[in-house]
Amino acid sequence: MLNVPVLLLTSNVGSMFEEGHEMIEAWLNSITSVVSKYKPKIVCIHCQEVGGKDFNISLPLMESFIEKFLALKVLDEFDRGRIHLDNDSDDISLFTALGTLYMFHKSLPSIHSWNFVERTYKPVTDRQVFFQDFRESTCLLRIKYPKEYFPEERYSRKGYLHSRYLIGSKPIDLLNIHLFHDASNFTAKDRPEYYSEKRRNALRYVLNKLKTDYPDLHKHPMYMFGDFNFRLNTRDVIEYLCGGTTQTQTFANDGDLKAIDYLRAMDRQTILRLEIKKFDYYDMGRFTMQAAREFRKFDHEYHTFVGELHELPIRFPPSYPYSEDLSCGNQFLGTRCPSWCDRIFASPTGMKAVKDSPVEPVYNSLSPDGCVGDHKPVFLAFTLRINEEEPQNGTSSSILDDLQNSFQQVHQNIDSAMSESSAMEN
After folding, report:
1. CA–CA gap between residue 294 and residue 233 (Å, rounded)
2. Cα angle at 15 between 13 and 19, to 5 degrees?
3. How many Å apart are CA 88 and CA 97, to the nearest integer?
4. What is the CA radius of gyration of the chain?
5. What is the dihedral of CA 198, 204, 207, 210, to 10 degrees?
6. Among 114, 102, 211, 224, which residue's Cα sits nearest to residue 175?
7. 237 to 230, 240, 279, 337: CA distances (angstroms)
8. What is the C-alpha to C-alpha distance for residues 357 and 12, in angstroms, rounded to an integer?
């Protein structure tokens, strides 16, 4: 068996691109720090909101970002890699604003990526970047959720990317996912199930699609990591923080609710002010104390998927929302209730591989005191055990043939089902 250190990392980088070069440098420094510390041979980074709110304005920044990432000294010995940044910003029905950065160390056995068009494994022998030519990549599958799954059935930059790599003889599936956010704190307070149900339905769609399209997926490790936007139950958190308070409401000129102030009984001081995009608690530091363990009981959304998706225990503070001021990176922004939005989940087989790691796995967030945007990156470091038997010099081995045949059979079944469905419609 070969022991291969792996680093999986997810980072919502939207505000990083909006703030510019200085924050990009801070983010790159955090990547250097974690790679230097854990010395992985495989680095898999999933990014969401690539380019920020105005993608086209950020184009020069993104090109610079790619160059600087590939030039990191800590990645000098990673001679193979695949970088994908979705650039279809002009077509909202396709655009996900997702990016994947996969790097493989020169000491690794042969690496193959699954070609979703030719339905075969292809050797990975160099570094390639797919940005301007994103659509030309065949080793990545981009899926947008059906329109009816979006809040108010309006498209936004949400979806997922699916890749499959063969490390020696071990297949690994990687999914970069971004689910819907809470648009209004008032709605989250009054109807906390509204947004959580949208996220739950979209994630169920992904899992069902994987089971249907790739019934062999359970045989091999699968890791799904990204910005799930899982939120604490806002209504329950407010009741917990503001029990015994009185409320005052402020209305705008048009009669719409503008703000709710929760006043402490003894001195009538506001301890929480709630607006559509403001969650201003007087002691936001409470959400970082002892990794905010007292608030874990309000983190319910994952529970629906227990058994299908597995996660190591969370022992780090909420990953969102942090100040975007470079001098205040450890302070919450006060826009939303702090939550563990950024997560790393594994299939049962994937979690078994993590727990079989000969080195204790580490599940944590990056840059606790530094500013790298409104989301803290979250990472999982572990050692993957793989068989040393592998395809040599790009030629097929029986293991590779078996895996390709298995995956091809899956696609044939999908094609057959689609043909039957088309025939029935006609």
Report:
1. 13
2. 120
3. 8
4. 22
5. -80
6. 224
7. 14, 5, 11, 8
8. 27
Which residues in the chain come in under a pLDDT of 70?
Answer: 388-426
Count the neighbouring beta carbons within 10 Å of the beta carbon of residue 247. Answer: 11
Q: What is the greatest pairwise CA distance in the chain? A: 77
Query: What is the rounded CA–CA span in Å between residue 108 and residue 35?
Result: 16
Q: How far apart are CA 145 and CA 206, in angstroms?
A: 8
Q: How many CB atoms lie within 10 A of CB 138?
A: 15
Give whole-number Cα distances, 344 to 15, 227, 272, 351, 359, in Å: 21, 9, 31, 11, 18
Burial of 266 per CB tally in 10 Å (0-12, 13-18, 19+): exposed
- Tell me the CB-side half-sphere exposure of residue 289, using CA atoms within 13 A: 6
- Please tell me what DSSP assigns to residue 310: B
At 267, phi and psi to the nearest 5? -135, 5
Secondary structure letter of residue 26 according to DSSP: H
Residue 182 CA to residue 173 CA, distance in Å, equals: 29
Give the SS3 label for residue 5: strand
Predicted pLDDT of residue 71: 98
Q: Dihedrals φ, ψ of 54, to 5°? A: -115, 90
Q: Name the token pair of 375.
A: 């989301």
Query: How far is the CA of 74 from the CAs of 70, 191, 318, 377, 398, in angstroms?
Result: 9, 47, 28, 18, 35
3-state secondary structure 102-169: EEECCCCCCEEEEECCCCEEEEECCEEEECCCHHHCCCCEEEECCHHHCHHHCCCCCEEEEEEEEECC
| Two structure tokens written together for 386 | 């793989």
